[in-house]
Sequence to fold (396 residues):
Amino acid sequence: MKKLSILFLSIIIVTSSAWAQGVDRSKFIKDSLDLYISRALTNWRIPGVAVCIVKDGKVVMMKGYGVKELGLNNKVDENTLFMIGSNTKAFTATAMAMLQANKTLSLDDKVTKYLPEFKLDNQYAGQEVNIRDLLCHRIGFRTFQGDFTFYNTDLGRSEIIERMGHVKAAYPFRTQWGYTNSAFLTAGQIIPKVTGKPWEVYLKENIFAPLGMINTLALTEDMPKSLNRTVPHTLVDGHLTAIPYCQIDGLAPAGAISSSVNDMSKWVMALLNDGKVGSRQVIPNAAIQVTRQPQDIVGSVTHLNGETNYQLYGLGWFLQDYHNRHLVMHDGGVNGYLSSVTLSPKDHLGIIILTNTDQNQFFEALRWEIMDAYFKLSYSDYSGKYLKRLKAAQWR
Fold:
């Protein structure tokens, strides 16, 4: 009898495994995603999450989960604002590419053409650096070099650019990729030089408003004034705690935007539709395409499923292969927030994930889980795997 039970159990396991491999995994979105996310909020200790999936020009799902602030019964909805951090960079890069498309400037123009006071410690680099260099992180700085000196301070944009000029670069000019927020700030400061309008005004008038992103904020200073907004959270001595909004308007073109999944869905749908909203061409397709052209080799990444992928950088976007797909993606992180925006252009698929804690990898796990469902790959429980890996690292 015991042997029969073991055999019966083995048959169930094999059958279940075969079903998992062959099932139409897109049903995961409709049937299981709510439970998956709700469980993750508890396991990862995340107050609130907002998620949107766009497919073939339509919103497949858009929903808020959890609360805006821990301890309060103020639920997240599709219009609740989250800080999106470095997902701001794609907006800045696209704005610069739009200015190239309408022949206001060239991305290959030297920075000193518009900002003659611009200098770098490497004098040659300071003289030769162009706008494209700023937007793809190849000015010679090591990743985050100098950034935290300028982060969450009351320094103005011009002050940061001046101080950036005193940072001794870790690498020779254009030889290494190094993620540099102050470079994106510098690019954004060219906008008022050629348009007469500050970066935040230009984005509002030329991207936010035409796309219908009516709730999106360009500056951190405006976030506390919003009625429908999340509060940032982090872990303090092991306890999830609400914290103040970080002040990064000095670095605004690199990371200050706050938005909702409803507004971000309009941005993503336009990007997946060659810049069109209906019949209106809001963003020139040429501008979108130039941001997706590889500029730098970042390296390779090994996915949890064992697949090793290349990782390149365009202008404001990471570019990565995954299961024979070309992905355009970026993560964002500022104090109390983590976010993710991922596009699979050939599949006309877009995924937006916003969270109001900076202590989770769920935003990343969920991205892969949703993509695997659409790519008809077997279920992996990335959330559980990321959590297990994190706990193992904490015990080392």
